[in-house]
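Write out the bound-state structure for NAP.
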Amino acid sequence: MAARGAHSAGAPSATPPPSFDLTGRTALVTGGGRGLGLGISRSLLTAGADVVVVQRASPSPELATAARAADRAVDSYRADLSDVHALPALVARILEDHRIDVLVNNAGTQHRSPAVDFSLDAFDAVLDVNLRVPFRLCQLVGRPMLERGEGKVVNVASLLSFQGGLTVPAYAASKGAVAQLTKALCNEWAASGVNVNAVAPGYMDTDMNVALLADPARREQISQRIPAGRWGTPADVGGAVVFLSSAAADYVHGVVLPVDGGWLAR
Ligand SMILES: NC(=O)c1ccc[n+]([C@@H]2O[C@H](COP(=O)([O-])OP(=O)(O)OC[C@H]3O[C@@H](n4cnc5c(N)ncnc54)[C@H](OP(=O)(O)O)[C@@H]3O)[C@@H](O)[C@H]2O)c1
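---
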C-alpha cells in the first residue's frame, strides 16, 4: 500500500499546476477602453490574451500602451450598445475578424433619482445597456463557443446584485438580474464547456462614482464601512476576471464573485 504523502518530497505530481495563462486567447471586453473595463483589459493583456474592446468613444491611449508592454494585440470597435437591435451586425463583424474565447460584459450605465420620480425612459435605458445587451451578447458570442465546446463568459454584476442601494432602482434591478442571468446561462451551458460567471465589484474609484466621490461625507462613510479600508481599483477587478477567464476556473460555474474589499461580509 502506498504511504500517505508518497507524492511529496520531490516526487513528480500527476496534477499540473493551475493555469492562469491566457496566451492564444482573445477576449472581447465591452466598455474595455476606460474605467473598470480598462483595468480588466490590462489584466487580460498581461495574462497573455489579445483584447477586443467595444464602446462609444475611442479607448484610452493607455490600452495601446498596455498592449505594447505585454506584446499583445488590441482591436477596437466603436458602437452605441444601447441599440440592442444593432448587435447582430456588430458581432458578425467582430467574429469575422476574431475568434472570441472570452466575453466580458462590462459596459454599464447609471442613473440616479429618487424612485418615486424615476422616469420610465431612464429605467428602460439602464435596463437596455446593463441587462438586455449582455443577454444578447451572450447569445451571439456564446453560440460559436457552444459549437466549439469551450468558452468563458464573465458578466460584470455589482454589490447591487445583492443589495438595493439608494436612488438607483433601475441599476439595482438590472444588476440583480445580471446575477440571475449568469446562473440561468450556467445551467444550460456548463455541460457544453462554456463557463458563465460574474464578478461583483464593490465601490470603485471610476467615473461612474463621481457623484459619490465628490461628496466628502458620503465618501468617508463608505470608506469606513469597507473592511479593506479603501475603495477598489480597476486592477482589483482585473485579477478576478483573469481567474474566471482561465483554465484554473474550468470547474467554476455560475458564481457571482464579490470583489469588494469585504463589504458584503460586514
Ligand atoms: N464603479 C463602480 O463602483 C462599480 C461597481 C460595481 C459594478 N460596476 C460595473 O462595472 C462596469 C464598468 O463600470 P465603470 O465604473 O467602469 O463605469 P464608467 O467609468 O462609467 O465606464 C462605463 C463603460 O461602459 C461603456 N458604456 C456605457 N454605456 C455605453 C453604451 N451605450 N455603449 C457602449 N459602451 C457604453 C463606457 O464607454 P463609452 O462611454 O466610451 O461608451 C465605459 O467604457 C459597469 O457594468 C458597472 O455597472 C461598477
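---
The helical segments are 35-46, 61-70, 87-97, 120-148, 169-189, 210-213, 216-225, 234-245.
The chain has one domain: 26-265.
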